[in-house]
Write a structure and sequence with these properties.
Chain lengths: 249, 273
């Protein structure tokens, strides 16, 4: 489709929805924030590199940290703070002073555009009835399929969709997807599903020996994984902000 | 057309040079015209293990820089027919190698010298020298010790082969990868000190081409400047010979992978094991 070019515009402003990582602050203590940041970033340095970040102040009780200091701290960690999310006037003033944008409350997630039904015209009527009778699932993305082993030191990111690996993921390898992750082998490395914040994302694997599993930023290290689930076929998902692992057998 | 084989591992000290020397000799003993190239520029060792350090006049880097031609730099082995060595330079560093220069030498070895096999002895690490050694490879022999850090590094180098070799860059058939387990000690595997063959095969998921038992003969051979494969009495030599046969497509059962039961005499009086 051609864009509407009545005049030669140098840009177009449009409303857009982006998924951003939000830092939900519970404490005003810069030092402890610094310490936790160092730890979290060490888990997935590439993922956090130059990541835009919203500072969410909705859940903090009482005093908030000096936002300019916090901004500097985040920048020191190679993050890019873009805005503050808060409904309180005082917070918004502080954000304004620190040169940060202001977002109010978590607006309900936008409805994704429905993808037009692309059934072929040659299909028989019977077929169409079947299609109509089936519940309507919206397919967002076909995702990325990797047919070979993901080796130590390799990093694969399926941006905007699912990642399927038809082999094993080695210790020291990192796989990320904005959607689900499916591994038809052994997961020994680190897996980050819902990497842009989708809390419905899941990680499926044929044998769980992961160094780390993470969904929308909620992670669990190998040593914290219940041994009943190790070396098993599992699905890892998020429920009420808690990472849960279920057996698939 | 020459086959280019890289002997690599990521980790140092696992037996790449020993393997290059024995494997190359084994191929030549089978009648294949073979050259072994030392890619470990600055830390040249292959000539020592092959016992021809006193015959090095020109080296790999001299040829890359057009300071000598291949005929001047290639050293013909005195014990094995069909076997040649291209030594590394001891006075340069690894940056002295360029892709264009290495490619030109490979072309000459293939088209003018008609080598069947070019065996590239890679330096340790994953830097320039190692990348240069594996870039043109058709086949890779991944030398691995039965311990976790070696297996991890082998895994890393497999990832690099799959993404940074010429075959990968051109989207051709991938480099054929095979693993050679060295310094395998059945007693220590049985006691749980070392990883067993099955575990390593599961982690690396590539075909096993041989298992070389830990053996004092390897050090003895290195110090005397003779590839261990020529010491036909030794278990390590026989295991290398088997690996060469498997490389050439023969089916040979694995040997020396189970614990030897100590005899009565040894049990009574002890022994060095």
């Amino acid at each position: 489709m051609k864009p509407n070019n009545q005049k030669q515009d140098s840009f177009r402003l449009r409303g857009s929805f982006f998924t951003l990582s939000a830092m939900e602050l519970y404490s005003a203590d810069i030092d402890s924030i610094d310490e936790q940041l160092t730890k979290n970033i060490a888990l997935a340095p590439k993922f956090f590199e130059k990541a835009p970040l919203v500072i969410d102040l909705e859940k903090i009780n009482g005093k908030i940290p000096n936002l300019s200091t916090l901004k500097q701290l985040l920048e020191k960690h190679n993050l890019i703070p873009v805005a503050v999310c808060s409904s309180k006037k005082a917070h918004q003033t502080a954000a304004h002073k620190a040169g940060l944008g202001i977002l109010t409350a978590n607006a309900p997630a936008p409805q994704a555009e429905t993808i037009p039904n692309q059934t072929k015209e040659t299909e028989t009527d019977d077929h169409q009835k079947e299609v109509e009778a089936a519940p309507h699932y919206e397919v967002k993305n076909h995702g990325l399929v990797i047919r070979h082993a993901v080796r130590s030191g390799q990093q694969i990111y399926a941006r905007g969709g699912d990642l399927t690996v038809l082999a094993s993921v080695s210790t020291g390898a990192e796989i990320l997807a904005d959607g689900n992750i499916h591994i038809y082998g052994t997961l020994r490395g680190r897996a980050f599903a819902g990497a842009s914040g989708d809390t419905d994302a899941m990680i499926f694997c044929h044998s769980l020996q992961a160094e780390l599993v993470s969904i929308a930023g909620h992670y669990q290290l190998n040593e914290k994984i219940d041994s009943n689930y190790l070396n098993k076929r599992t699905v890892t998902h998020l429920q009420d902000e808690r990472l849960l692992i279920d057996l698939l057998d | 057309m020459s086959q280019i084989i890289v002997v690599t591992s990521g980790k140092g000290g696992v037996g790449k040079t020993t393997t290059s020397a024995s494997f190359g000799s084994g191929l030549a003993l089978k009648g294949h015209k073979t050259v072994i190239i030392d890619f470990d520029i600055g830390l040249r060792n292959l000539d020592l293990i092959m016992g021809c350090e006193r015959r090095v006049v020109y080296d790999f880097v001299n040829v890359v820089n057009d300071e000598a031609n291949l005929n001047q730099a290639l050293i013909k082995d005195k014990r094995v027919d069909n076997l040649f060595l291209l030594p590394a330079s001891q006075t340069r560093n690894k940056d002295a190698l360029t892709r264009e220069g290495v490619e030109r030498i490979f072309d000459q070895l293939t088209n003018e010298h008609n080598f069947d096999y070019i065996v590239c002895d890679s330096p340790a690490g994953i830097e320039h020298g190692a990348l240069m050694a594996l870039y043109f490879a058709d086949e890779a022999i991944i030398v691995t010790n039965p311990e976790v850090s070696s297996v991890r590094d082998s895994d890393r180098i497999l990832g690099i082969l799959a993404s940074q070799s010429r075959r990968a860059e051109r989207g051709e058939d991938p480099v054929k990868e095979r693993m050679l387990l060295t310094r395998y000690c059945p007693t220590r595997v049985a006691s749980g000190d070392m990883l067993c063959i099955e575990d390593i095969e599961e982690i690396l998921a590539i075909p096993l081409i041989g298992v070389i038992p830990e053996s004092g003969d390897v050090l003895k051979a290195s110090n005397s400047g003779s590839p261990v494969i020529l010491d036909s009495e030794s278990n390590a030599a026989q295991a290398y010979s088997d690996a060469v046969d498997r490389f050439l497509g023969e089916e040979v059962p694995l040997r020396f992978i189970t614990e030897e039961k100590p005899g009565l005499f040894k049990r009574l009086f002890g022994g060095k094991g």
